Amino acid sequence: MKFQDLFLIRHELLLTLAALILIVFELFTADNRKKSIVPISLFLLVLVTAIGILFPAKGIAFGGMYQTDSLRTAMKAILDIAAIIIFLQSYGWISKKANQGKTTEFYILILSTLIGMDFMISSGDFLMLYLGLELATIPIAAMAAFDRYKTNSAEAGIKLILSSALSSALLLYGLSILYGTTGSIYFEEVKLAFKPEPLPILGLIFFITGMGFKISLVPFHLWTADVYEGSPIAVTSYLSVVSKGAAIFIFTFVMYTVFADVSKVWSQIIVVLSITTMTVGNLFALRQENMKRFLAFSSIAQAGFIMLGILGMENQGMASVVFFLLVYVFTNLAAFSVVAAIDNQTGKENMADYNGLYKTNPKLSLIMMLALFSLAGIPPVAGFFGKLFLFSAAASNGYYWLLFIAVLNATISLYYYLRPVRAMFIEKNDNPIPAFKSDIYMRIGIGICVAGIFLTGFISAIFEYFISISNLF
Amino acid sequence: MNILNLLVIIPLLTVFGIAIAKDMKTVRWVSAIGMFVQLLTAITVMLLYLGIRKSGVTDEMVMMSDHLWFKTLNIHYTIGVDGISVAMILLTGIVVFAGIFASWEVEYLQKEFFISLILLATGVFGFFISIDLFTMFLYYEIAVIPMYLLIGIWGTGPKEYSAMKLTLMLMGGSALLIVALFGIYYNTEFADGTHSFNLLELAKQTMNADAQRFFFPFAFLGFGVLGALFPFHTWSPDGHASAPTAVSMLHAGVLMKLGGYGIFRIAMYLMPQAAHEQAWIFIILTSTSVIYGAFGAIWQKDLKYINAYSSVSHCGLVIFGLLMMNQTAMDGAILQMISHGLMTALFFALIGMIYSRTHTRMIHEMGGLMKVIPFLGVVYMIAGFASLGLPGLSGFVAEMTIFVGAFQHADIFYRVATIMAISAIVVTAVYILRVVGILLLGPIKNDHFLHLKDATWYEKISTITLLAAVAGIGLFPNWLYQIIFDSLEPIVTKLATVL
Fold it and tell me: Disulfide: which of A139, B211, B286, B393 matches B320 by Cβ 3.0-4.6 Å?
C-alpha cells in the first residue's frame, strides 16, 4: 500500500474525521450547549461535500478493492447533498427536549452510514460491497429506534435490523456461490469467469434478492411500511432517499459491469420485479392515511420505475438512473420536509389533518404540491424529466409493453398523489393546522429542494454530464 | 427573438403580475390586459404568417427557431407555425380573452384562479407552436394538470369526483402518448443512425410498417381521449358540468382541440400506413360519438350537460372529418375545431351568466328569459343556430365542408358512416330548438326572474368577442379555408403516398 492509496479514499477519510471531531466535541461540551453541534456537523458535512466535488478522486486502490471515478464521485455528491438537506430539516426534531441527551449520536450515526455507503459505491469487489452495505445499514437501525420512548419506533428498529440481517444472509449466500463458481470476488474477474449455468445463475438470483431487500422491491418490501412509519421522519427520509439511492446505484453498477454478459437472464427478472413493484406499491399507496406510510409506499412504487431505467443498459440507462436519483433526492426530501415541519409543530401526520392547509400555510402547501407533482412526473418540474428519461431508457431496448404497464401505473399513482393536494386545497376544515413559521434550517433545506425541483430538469447540462461520465460500456 | 416565444412569455409574465398583485381589482385587470396583449400577439402572428405566405414562401412551417436542449437524446426546443397552428393560436387567444371576462365575478381565491387559468392557456399556446414532439408533450401536460385544481376548487356539484375523473382519464391518455412518443422516436432511424423528436424530420422518413401498426392506436387513442372519442368521452360531461364557466369555455373550446390537432399532426402524419389500415375502426367509433353525443344531449335537463354532450358530438365530427383523409374533409374538420371552439365557449359563457342570475341550470325551472334578459337571450339563440349549422354562421361552413369531403369516398362503408354522421345534424336541431324554446320563450316560470338584470359590460365584452368571431367565420370563411387548405398539403400528400 502506498500513501497515494490513502489519498484516493480521501472522501471516506474526511467523513471519518468529521465523525471523530463530533465525538471529541461531544466529550468536551456541556449538555446545555449541545445545540451548537448542529451547525458544526452541518459545516463539516458541507466542507466534505465541497472537497468531494471540487477535488474529485480517480483511480484504483487496495489491489482493486476500491475504485473511484467521476460517476462514483457524482453519486457520492448526490448522497452528501441529500444528507445535508436531512441535517437541515431535522433541526427542529433533534433540538426537542426528548432528544437532548443524544443530539451528537444522530449526526455521528448518519456520518458513519455515509462512510459505509461511500465504500459500497466505490467497491471493486463483492467483499467491499458487503462491508460497505453492512456499515451503511446497522447504524440506521439504531437511528430508526431513536425515539425509543415510542413503541413503534423501537419496533421499526428491530424490524429493520432483522430484515436486513436476513437480506444480508441471502446476499452473502449468493456471493459465496459466485465465489465458489468463479473463484474470485473481484468484479472484473467474476465477469470473466461467470458462465450462464444454473449454479452461478442461482448466485446471481440471491444477489438480486439481497439487494432487492435494500431497495425494497416487491416482494421483498414487507418491512418498508412499518419501518418508515415508526422511524422519526428524518430517519424515514434518510432511508427512503439516501440508503435506497446508494443501494440502487451499486445494484445498477454491478448489473451493468459484472453481469453485463448475462443481461438476457437478469433483465427478465428485473422486468418481473419492476412490474410487481410498481403495481403493488401503487395499489397499497392508494388507501394510506398516514403521510409517512403514504410516502413509504410511494417510494416503493418509485423503485419500480427506476428498474425501468436499469433495463436501458448502455450509458443512457446508467445516466437516467443517476439523474432520477438526484431528482428523487430533491423531490422526496421536499415532501418529507413538509411532513416533518408539520409534525414538529403539531405532531400530526395524517392526511386528514392536512385538510384546508392552503388557507393557513399556503407556502408549505404549494411546496408539497410541487413535490407531489414531481413524484407523479408532471411537468414542468424535474420529476417529469426524470421519469421520461427512465422510460426512454426502457424504450430504447424495446420494452414497450413494460413501458405501457409503467405509464398506466404512473396514471394510477396520480390518483394518490392528488389526494393530499385535494386535502390541502379543496377540502374544508373547521380547525385546520394553524399558521406557523418553521425554523431557519428547515427553510433553507426546503429552499434547496425547491430550487432543485425546478432547475434539475430544465438545465440539460446536468443530464448531459451524467451521460458523459457513465462510460461503462 | 422569434415572435412565437412571446406567446409563451406573455402569459407567464401575466401570471407573475397576478402573483404580486395586491387586491382583487388589480388581479382582474392584470389578467385582462395580459390576455388582451396575448390576443393582439396572436393576431400579429396571423398577419405575419399571411405576409410570409404572400411573399411566396412555401416551407411547411415558418417563423421557425431551434435550440438544442438535451444533446444525447436529440431533444430540441423547436418552434414554428403553419396555417393550422396559426388559426388554432388565434382561436385560443380569443377564447382565453373571453374567458377572463366571463370569470370577472370569481371571488374565492381569485388570484389562484387566474394563475391556474392562464397557466393552462400557456400550455395550450406552447403546444400549438411546438414542432419537437418532446416539448409538445411537455406543454400538453402543462395544459392538462391545472384542470384538476380549477375544477376541484372552483367547481360546482360533485366537483372532487369530476375533477379526479377528468384528470385521471386525460393523464391516462397522455400515458398512451408516452408509449407512442418513444415508439415513434426509436423506430424512425435516420441515415446517420440518430433519432429525432422533430416532427418535420420524422415526417421525411418512413416508419417501419409493423411499428406503425403497433403504435398508431396508442397515439390515436392518446389524443382521442382528449378529443372525447367514444368510449373515452365519459370525463367530458361530468368535467364540463362541474367546471367553473371559464374553465368549461377553455376546456371545450380549446383543450379538446389539442386532441384533434395531435391526431392529424402526429398520429396520421407520422404513421400514414397504419392510419389507412386502421381507419375503419376509428370511423366506427367516431360515427358512434357523433350520434351518441347528439342523442345524449336530447335527454339531458342540465344546460351544461346538454352542451357537454353536444361537444362530444361535434368533436366526434372533427375526428370523423380527419379520418376521411382527403384535403376537403380534413379542412372541414379543422374549421369545425375552430368553429366549435368559439361556439361552445360562447355557450358555456352564456350558461355561466344565466346560472349566476337564476341559480339553476335545469331548463325546466326556467322559461321566458328572452323577456327579462334580451341580450343574453339573443346571443344564446345565435349560438344555438351556429351549433345546428345555420348558413351564415361558422358551424355551417365547417360541417358542410366535412360532408362534401366525406362523400368523395364512394364505397359503401364510408357512405353509411357519412349518412349516419349527417343524421346527427337533425338531432342537433332537435335539442337546440328544444332548449331555446323552453329556456328563452314561453311564460316566465318564476317571479324571481322578473328582476334579473341583463348582461354587464364585462359579460358583453366576453360574448361579443366570441360572437363576432363566429359570425366572421360564417360570413367570410374563404380566407381561413384557404390558409388551412394550403397547410394540409404536406399531410395529405404523405397520407396518399402509401396508397
Answer: B286
- Domain locations along chain B: 3-497
Q: Report residue B328 as a C-alpha cell.
A: 376537403
Set of chain B residues whose Cβ sits within 8 Å of the Cβ of A314: none
Verify whether the Cβ–Cβ distance B152 to A425 is below 8 Å: yes
What region does A361 belong to: left with phi over 0, alpha with psi -120 to 50, or beta?
beta
Query: Quick one: pLDDT at residue B24?
Result: 83
Mean pLDDT of the region B192-208 = 85
Average pLDDT over every residue of B424-439:
86
Residue A373: closest C-alpha in chain B: B145
Radius of gyration of chain B (CA): 22
Cβ separation B73–A392 shorter than 8 A = yes
**Would you mind telling me the total number of residues written for chain A in this entry?**
473
Cα(B284)–Cα(B224) distance, rounded to whole angstroms?
A: 13
Q: Which of B173, B171, B96, B169 is nearest to B128 (CA)?
A: B96
- Measured between CA atoms, the residue of chain A closest to residue B138 is A379
Residues of chain A found within 8 Å of residue B176, distances taken between Cβ atoms = 404, 407
Closest CA–CA distance from residue A76 to any residue of chain B (Å):
24
Report field, pTM of the whole predicted structure over 0.90: yes
Tell whether B211 lies on the interface with A, counting CB pairs under 8 A.
no
What is the DSSP code (8-state) at residue A96? S
Which residues in chain A have Cβ-Cβ distances shorter than 8 Å to B163?
A: 426
Contact B149 A411 (CB under 8 A): no
What pLDDT band is residue B467 in, cutting at 50, 70 and 90?
confident
Evaluate if residue B421 carries a pLDDT over 90.
Answer: no
CA within 13 Å, CB half, B358: 28
Chain B within 8 Å of A388 (Cβ-Cβ)? yes
Phi and psi at A358, nearest 5°, equal -60, -35
pLDDT score recorded for residue A371: 93
Q: Which grid coordinates belong to A382?
A: 424535474
Mean pLDDT of B103-113: 83
- Which stretches within A223-348 are classed as H helix? 224-230, 233-237, 244-257, 263-285, 291-310, 314-346
Residue with cell 474470485: A184
Query: Residue for cell digits 431487500?
Result: A213
* Packing angle, helices A103-121 and A244-257, rounded to 10: 10
Q: With 0-12 CB in 10 A as exposed, 13-18 as middle and 19+ as buried, what is B108?
A: exposed
Whether B320 contacts B227, CB under 8 Å: no
How far CA A164 is from CA of A106, A157, B254, in Å, comes to 20, 11, 54
- Give CA–CA dist A190/A194, Å, rounded: 6
Is residue B451 over pLDDT 90? no
Q: Which residues of chain A have pLDDT under 70?
A: 1, 473
CA distance B204 to chain A (A): 21
For residue A404, what is the nearest residue in chain B, using CA coordinates? B179
Q: Are A2 and A8 in contact (CB under 8 A)?
A: no
Measure CA of the first residue to CA of the last residue in chain A; give whole Å: 30
- The 10s digit of each residue's pLDDT in B268-302 is 888 888 888 888 899 999 988 888 888 888 888 88
Q: For residue B231, is the peptide bond before it cis, meaning its omega torsion is within 30 degrees of 0?
A: yes
A400 contacts chain B (CB < 8 A): yes
Whether ipTM exceeds 0.85: yes
Cβ of B168 and A467 within 8 Å? no
Q: Which three cell numbers stand for residue B412?
A: 359503401
A249: Cα separation from own chain's centroid = 9
B155, closest residue in chain A (CA to CA): A426
Rounded CA gap, A385 and B276, in Å? 34
Of B405, B399, B379, the C-alpha closest to B471 is B379
> Position B337: which residue type?
M
**Contact status of A119 with chain B (Cβ, < 8 Å):** no
Asked whether the CA dihedral B420, B425, B431, B437 is positive or negative, the reply is negative
